[in-house]
Design a protein that fits this description.
The protein contains 13 helices and 15 strands. The chain has 397 residues and is an alpha/beta fold.
Length: 397
């Protein structure tokens, strides 16, 4: 069977592929240290699980409206008002099967063949392929480590064309952990305002901010963009609910209606009992999140310090999310077992095969010469993995 031509442009997720390899080795008894996973190692809080169990006991197991149960949509609206100062009507909110589906719905709903979507590199690996699957063209605008991975307004201006349909923001960022300040976002928003394109703010890492720069999204910074902006969020990172698959989005009513139409013909509603769990999550005290964030701060500092102590590697301290981007360009060009180390991709392969460390190469994120390391594992495992990376660096000729 020959798959559809549009799939020839799509590549499997490198993070999922690396996780699968690492799990397969672990199943064989190999002691693999995983830096690849993009999910919290904390369990879902008990009160959230209890809400799902209670929904089952009450028989809340039928279809719901595609856009989600009214009480969860109301809780999302309250969250936006309380945490972000953003006001939405009920018809402006959509509950989705993970934040990823909200983004996928958006691109399917707004893109025609040849439409362009501006994405800042390094980027989350799924953005370009979701754009391509909708018939659009990803336009990559580079950012620089020495600028803190902050996009340049001039570079954004140069990338905007009459075909630009949307610009995607992700702060805190996967993979860099960069957090854009209000000032940064204001400058970028002022470039977008006269153009008239749409804006997407992927806020999935919103609560995981460690530095002095408070969370702010593009709509907070430039309120005039709200009538053409989609704000996306979810429960995976904030409440350790990756496997539950629950997200949400808010934006102009006509846009949300179009996205709901896409969802009507794909998954329909998010799982009924999961929606009840999400309702409980939004009503929680946030104590578990504060504990998780404090621990991640300690892990971040451990990882950054250890990486910067390895000759040939440098690592900027991220202000958010739970990733570091390790610059390994100082190791490239050296030899290992008689072969020249030519890329971060090759380095990632060798780390897994010879040193039992799973670290994602930067190439799929639009960042050759870097490794993305997640620090969502215990400090003991982090130290073990970092020691192995140091041993690999020391083994290079």
């Amino acid at each position: 069977m020959q798959p559809a031509r549009r799939l020839q442009q799509i590549k499997p997720s490198p993070t999922l592929a690396l996780n699968a390899k690492a799990r397969a080795l672990a199943a064989q008894g190999v002691d693999v240290v995983g830096f690849a996973a993009g999910e919290p190692d904390y369990d879902t809080p008990a009160f959230i699980k209890d809400a799902a169990v209670e929904a089952l006991r009450q028989g809340f197991t039928k279809y719901t409206a595609t856009a989600g149960i009214p009480e969860l949509r109301a809780a999302v609206r309250e969250k936006f008002q309380r945490d972000n100062g953003l006001t939405y009507a009920p018809e402006q909110v959509l509950i989705t099967v993970g934040a990823k589906q909200a983004l996928y719905n958006f691109f399917q709903a707004v893109l025609d063949p040849g439409d362009e979507v501006i994405i800042f590199a390094p980027y989350w690996v799924s953005y370009p392929d979701m754009v391509r699957l909708a018939g659009g063209e990803p336009v990559v605008v580079e950012t620089r480590e020495e600028d803190g991975w902050v996009p340049s307004p001039d570079a954004l201006r140069a990338a905007l064309t009459p075909r630009t349909r949307a610009v995607v923001f992700n702060s805190p960022s996967n993979p860099t952990g960069a957090v854009l300040s209000r000032k940064d976002l204001e400058a970028l928003g002022q470039v977008i305002l006269p153009h008239g394109c749409l804006v997407v703010s992927d806020d999935i890492y919103e609560p995981l901010v460690y530095g002095d720069t408070p969370f702010c999204n593009i709509v907070n910074a430039v309120p005039a963009l709200q009538d053409r902006a989609l704000v996306v969020n979810g429960f995976s990172k904030s409440h350790s609910m990756t496997g539950w698959r629950l997200g949400y989005a808010a934006g102009p009513a006509v846009l949300v209606s179009a996205m709901t139409m896409v969802q009507d013909q794909s998954t329909s509603n998010a799982a009924s009992i999961v929606q009840k769990a999400g309702l409980a999550a939004l009503g929680g005290s946030g104590a578990e999140l504060r504990e998780m964030r404090a621990e991640y701060l300690q892990r971040r500092d451990l990882v950054v310090s250890a990486l910067n102590a390895i000759p040939g590697i440098r690592c900027r301290t991220p202000d958010g999310a739970f990733y570091v981007m390790a610059n390994v360009k100082g190791l490239l060009g050296k030899s290992y077992k008689g072969q020249v180390l030519g890329s971060a991709l090759r380095m990632s392969e060798l780390l897994l095969s010879d040193f039992q460390v799973a670290a994602v190469p930067g190439e799929p994120f639009g960042a050759p010469g870097y490794l993305r390391l997640s620090f969502v594992t215990s400090r003991e495992k982090l130290q073990k993995g970092l020691s192995r990376i140091a041993a690999f660096a020391a083994a290079l000729g």
